[in-house]
Every structure is written in C-alpha cells, then in structure tokens.
Design goal:
- The protein has 481 residues and is of the alpha/beta class.
- It has helices at residues 4-13, 31-42, 58-69, 83-93, 102-108, 164-171, 199-210, 223-233, 242-249, 273-283, 305-315, 393-401, 435-443, 471-480; strands at residues 20-24, 27-30, 49-53, 73-77, 97-101, 116-120, 128-130, 144-149, 159-163, 190-192, 215-217, 237-239, 263-266, 287-293, 298-302, 321-322, 327-331, 344-349, 360-368, 374-379, 384-386, 389-391, 406-416, 420-429, 454-458.
- Among the domains are: 4-178, Rossmann fold (3-Layer(aba) Sandwich), CATH 3.40.50.12780; 383-480, ANL, C-terminal domain (GMP Synthetase, Chain A, domain 3).
- Helices cover 29% and strands 27% of the residues.
- The protein has a seven-stranded mixed beta sheet, sandwiched between helices.
- Helix 9 (242-249) packs across helix 10 (273-283).
- It is globular, with a radius of gyration of 23 Å.
- The termini are far apart.
Amino acid sequence: MAHPLSRRIDDVLGLDPSANAVQYDGQWNTWGQVATLARRIGQVSTGTRVGIMLRNRPVHVAALLGVLSTGGTVVVINPSRGDERTRADIEALGLPVIVGLAEDITALTTPSSTTTVVTIGDLDTPPVVTPARHPTADAGRPGVAVWMLTSGTTGPPKRVDLTYDMLARSVIGRDPEKSPAPTELRRGVAIVNSPLVHVGGVFRVLLCIAEARPFVLLPKFELQRWAAAVREHQPRAVSLVPAALRMVLHSDLTRDDLAGIRAVTSGTAPLSADDADAFTEKFGIPVLTSYAATEFGGGVAGWTLADHQKYWKDKRGSVGRANPGARLRVVAGDGTPLPPDQEGLLEVKPAQFDADADWVRTTDLARIDADGFVWIVGRADQAIIRGGFKVMPDDVRTALESHPAVRGAAVIGMPDDRLGETPVAMVELRGSAPVAELADYLQGRLARYEIPTTIAIVDTIPRTPSGKPDLGAVREYFTRV
C-alpha cells in the first residue's frame, strides 16, 4: 500500500488537471502538465534511488513528485556546486537512475552501463530515457523519501535521510493516515523562493502539494521578481531567510508593495531581533522566527501570531516555543538536563520522529525560559576562544549588520600564535564604510576581545543554497590573504 505522502501527491495532482499549478517566469503550468511528467518519471523510479540534478524549474518539481509518488528515494544533486565536485559525487553514489537537463547530463555525468539516464527539458516534452545496458540490483534506501545534501555551512556537505514518515508529518500532520485528502484546490497562491536542493525548498513544495495550493516558483530569491509575485498574488504569509529579509528591509519597497501579507516566517539562520523589529516597523508585518534543521525534516520551534502579539516585547530574540508534539531541553556536557534560563547544549525530540525516538543532541547552545521560549545563543562548534575569552560569532555578526552600510557579515575564528584564536570578519556593503569606521562602530557594541582583528570588505559573501554564509569558503579566503 502506498505511503500517505505518495497518496497525497497522487490525489492532489488528479484534482483538476486543467487548473493552474506552478507559475514560472510569468507563465502558468497546469496540474495536468505536472502530473503527466511526474507519471513518466515514476515509471523508472519505483523503489529505487534516483539522483535528480535539481534546479528551481517546474520540470524538476514534476521529477521530484514523480519519484515520491512511486515510493522511490530522491537523491539530491546540486548542479551548482562546481562541475568537478558534482561529477565526483555522482560517480561515488553509483546511482541506478539519474535525471537532469540535457546540459547538466552532458557536463556532469560520465556514461555508465549500470545507470539509466532520464533527460528532461520542459513539462510539455516527454523525457528521453536511456536505459542502463547492464542494470544492477539496487538496495535503495527503504523508507527514505529524500536523501538530502546538507548545505555544508561549516564543512563538507553530508547526506541526511528524510523519511516518508518525517516529511508526511511535517506537511500533512502528526497523523497522516487519518488526514483526509483535499477535495478541491486552494485559491490562494504561495511563493516558493527556497532552492529545491535545500530542505526548505523541498518542504515548501510538498506543503503546497499537501494543501492543494498553486504556487509561484522563483529560480532563486531575486528582490524584484519576488516583489512582483507578492504584488500580483498578495499571499497572506511568505517565508524569507535572514539574508533575503534584510534585502527586503533595506530596499525601496513600501507597505503598499507588501499589502496582504500578515506574517513573515524566517528560519535556516539566526535573525537579529533588531532586524525583525525594523522590518515590522517599516512594513507593519510581524516576523515569526523559527528553529529547524535538515536532520529534523522540518521545524521544531517557532513563533505563532498569538504568541508574537502577547510575548514579543518581553521575549524578543527568541525563536519561539516548541511546535506541537516537539520536545526541547537544554543539557550540560554530560547530558544532565539544566533548569530554566541556564545555557547549555540543545537537545530535541521532533514531532516528525517516532514517539519513542531518542533525544537528538544538536551543536547549538541555547537557553529555555520558564515559559518555554527558546533562545539560540550560538553554535558550540563555532565558539572562538580568544586568550581564554569566549567569542560567539553570531554576536559579532549581529553587531556588524546593525551598521546601516552593512548588507551582510560572516565571522569565523582564525589561529593566532599568542591568543589561540581571534575573530575575523567578512563584510558585504550596500553603501560606503571604511574598515576603520566599522571598527570604531563596534567599540561601543562589543567587548574589546570580541572585536575582529581583521575586517575584509568584499563584493559578495559566499553563501550556501540556504542563504547562510559558506564558512568554509570564508575560511579559505582568510587563509589565502
């Protein structure tokens, strides 16, 4: 019997084949177009691993849904990571099926007699299937819907199992088997601007499918395209990673441009309370921050509108309270649970996991108050120890980003013969600000030991698909200079 997630995909794709499903580059594609290609992809993906070179295009959405509708495992391949790395990744995976655009197949794959190659173009063009000459049995990854490649913020990306159960609980509800399928399509249009190679993009697409909601698919977050979609469709809620939210905040957009939006959700990376308040003051829209991780297959804590209205003034900077069914606690290094307001390592039991699942220890330092509100203090594995003093990179980054000329910042620790480590910062500007001015600005906002020993101004901070600074690339930069 098909999994509830697979059934939900099939049910929604069949509701109204002639209705609008995905708007891309100003053009609508119907549910029937998406369903037709999804079924064709499904014919070669049942129960096996299928590598998809994912881009934010309707044809890739259909490929994703096609694999999931037949119980296969989507192996996420990011074709933008660099040709050499991607080729090596594909070769090491030994995939029985690989799907991609013609140009990606040509550039990134080496012909293999054991791999079936599916070349896609657009929703109206049947895929070209080149069967493996010598197919081999594939053990697959039973129960795994998406073998997700993490963003690799601090090191090499790794793969994480997102099971069918986890994703179904995230987008359908805590008891997917008992959740009735929609009987008609939703009228409101959502906006998906997160990349499909990141869990946020997969989640947003599957949430739209679960709700039978049409959506605009953006190739990436680009301010003017996003604003045009918001003006056209006036969604009640939008999701913006902190880097994108700051772009909107410091743009020329007005309240009228964002009319209709009642809340902005923001996750994947820390967002300062100052930026959240500034956004609300400018646009009159509350910002609901959340806490999630790829490994959880969705969020585990966040703000609700009701909590925001009642508690934000007193709890500003928190990422909210545990989601229904999720449990969070803070522990000491030896695993001893700590009382309210004590800082320690965050452990989580996500609602997406089975009820008897073990606590999952994160690398995040946090505190939880007596009302259950959670503050993420920083990453334990990113703490910089400068001559015995602990420096949290997020504190330094937040101080830098509060300067009106700073578009974004990234902070890491670099080895120092005398002090062990010192913080250094990479800064992207939207105005003009000499390094000396930035250093003076930090004097009144940070302790002396927190002030970076080097501030490098760059045109663009390297970022992962989720919008976080790519700290590995940042470290390479400072190693070279």
